[in-house]
Each structure stands twice: as C-alpha cells, then as structure tokens.
Design goal:
This protein is α+β, with helices and mostly antiparallel strands. It is built from two helices and seven strands. The chain starts with a helix and ends in a 7-residue tail after the last strand.
Length: 173
C-alpha cells in the first residue's frame, strides 16, 4: 500500500511541477516554437517517372472563367429602341433639333426647305429626305417642315413621332 501511495504522490508532483522531471524525449516544445514543415517535393530524387495529377477535390477549377455568359448577359428591355447599324451620311448626321428652318421655296408644285446648323452652314431639304437617325421629311408647307420619325423596339413595336420645324418670321428668334 505504501508503494501505491508513493506512485500516486510521484504522479501528482509531476503534474504540479508541469512535467519538469519528465525525460527529454517526452517533453513537448513550447507553443511559440515552430517546427519546420517537411518538404512538399523531394527534388533530390528523380520524380519524372511519376505523372502529375491535379486533384479537384473541394477546390475550384483554375481553368474555368470566373464570368460566364449567363452571368454577364444583361436583361434586355423589350421597349428599348433598336438602333440600326447604318453609316450616317448627309442629313442623317443631324437630328432635327440641331437645325433651324430659315426659308421655304416653292417652284411650281415642288417645295424646298432651307435649314442651317449651329455653325451657320446651310442645307437643302426635299420631301422624302432622310434626316437624323430615324426621321424622314414627310411634308413641306410654306411656314413649316414636318418630319416623321419611325423607330422599332426590341418587341417589334413601331413608334412614330412627328417633329415640326417652324419658319420664324423676320425679327423672331
């Protein structure tokens, strides 16, 4: 019984002293000491006989693009006006709001309108002349030019807008 009590007292004293009397191989290093990690790849040996295999378990594939077509495709508005891919030349370069009606000439049954841009350069308009992105000169009167703009939406709906350019009387701005 004395031997058992001696064993218990030795174990108890070792626990209280924090293991100072344990043999060197049984002691653990302090927590702030970092042991070097084993090398991942031994470069001294010839590893060319072993083929490389990438394991995808729990990892994203690095060769798949981050942005997919589904994620990058914006939602399309069906009421949005579709612009045609047409080269804008002549009077199509000007929107009706950029021009000012300065004169209307009548020669028999034919009427001609004269307009000028903000720089003062003059242009001639006839009925049927395309103007702006979507407009066409539909009618020329003695006091005004009527332009009809026709646009199409993504849903196929046709939108019509009428613009009237009035001839200012002398002295009006």
């Amino acid at each position: 019984m004395f031997a058992k009590t001696l064993q218990y007292s030795i174990c108890f004293s070792l626990l209280i002293c924090g293991g100072m009397y344990l043999p060197a191989q049984a002691k653990k290093p302090p927590a702030d000491v970092v042991e070097p990690a084993p090398p991942l790849l031994d470069l001294t040996e010839d590893n060319s006989s072993q083929p490389f295999a990438y394991v995808l378990e729990g990892r994203p594939d690095p060769f798949v693009p981050f942005i997919t077509k589904k994620a990058s495709t914006p939602k399309l508005n069906p009421d949005e006006i579709i612009d045609e891919d047409v080269e804008l030349t002549g009077m199509r370069q000007f929107e009706p709001g950029q021009l000012r009606l300065v004169a209307v000439l009548e020669t028999g049954k034919k009427k001609i309108a004269m307009v000028e841009d903000v720089t003062g350069k003059g242009y001639i308009l006839n009925e049927g002349t395309p103007i702006g992105r979507h407009g066409v000169v539909s009618k020329i009167n003695l006091q005004q030019v009527i332009i009809t703009e026709t646009a199409h939406t993504r849903a196929g709906k046709e939108l019509k807008n009428t613009i009237v350019m009035r001839l200012n009387k002398e002295g009006e701005q």
